[in-house]
Amino acid sequence: MDKSRFLLAIIAAFSILINVLFAGVALRVWLRSADGSTPTAVLSTLPDELRDELRSAVFQVDSRIAAAQTELRQSRSNLQSLLSADEPNPQALQSALVDVREDTLRLQTELHAVIFQFYATAEQQ
Fold first, then answer.
1. Exposure class string for 54-71: b at 16+ Cβ within 10 A, else e
2. DSSP state of 125
3. Which of 6, 35, 73, 107 can bridge 68 by disulfide, Cβ–Cβ 3.0-4.6 Å?
4. What is the pLDDT of residue 27?
5. Of the candidates 73, 57, 48, 35, the residue with the CA atom closest to the CA atom of residue 111
6. Which of 23, 17, 21 is nearest to 110 (CA)?
7. Rounded distance, CA 68 to CA 102, Å?
8. pLDDT at 37 over 60
9. Contacts of 11 (CB under 8 A, 6+ apart)
10. CA–CA separation, 44 vs 33, rounded Å?
């Protein structure tokens, strides 16, 4: 493996690691239901009543969140394919990294919007 391909692989791996930290940790830890089976509640330390209300708010936009998760999964798969290709393609790799970054941001934006809207509504009541 030549130096440029090795360097691209290291950079891509680092980028994926950062994305996993933001998306994976947020989905697995912060947005975990009470029984741990689906990413539907925020912070398991919330009181049960508040957690149930927030879970309902997330379910209302579940299709948008699921679509964002699917897009992120697809862009990560594309990136992995490019990294394992025999011939490196720096332009395609750069594009794939941008796609992963944008899809991660889109998912985070969807989740954050639900959380902020829920708390803004809860404060007014």
1. bbebbeeeeebbeebbeb
2. -
3. 107
4. 60
5. 57
6. 23
7. 10
8. no
9. 97
10. 7
If one counts every other C-beta atom within 10 angstroms of the C-beta of residue 110, the result is: 17
Distance CA 78, CA 97 (A): 9
Q: Count other Cβ atoms within 10 Å, centred on residue 23.
A: 21
Beta bridge partners of 42: 31
| Helix/strand/coil percentages in the chain, nearest 5 | 80, 0, 20
Counting Cα atoms < 13 Å in the Cβ hemisphere of 8 gives: 22
Please list, in sequence order, all residues whose beta carbon lies within 8 angstroms of the beta carbon of residue 109, skipping any fewer than 6 positions away.
none
59-118 pLDDT, tens digit each: 777 788 888 889 999 999 999 999 998 888 889 999 999 999 999 999 888 888 887 877
Contact between 82 and 92 (Cβ < 8 Å): yes
Q: Is the pLDDT of residue 32 over 70?
A: no
* Residue type, position 76, single letter: R
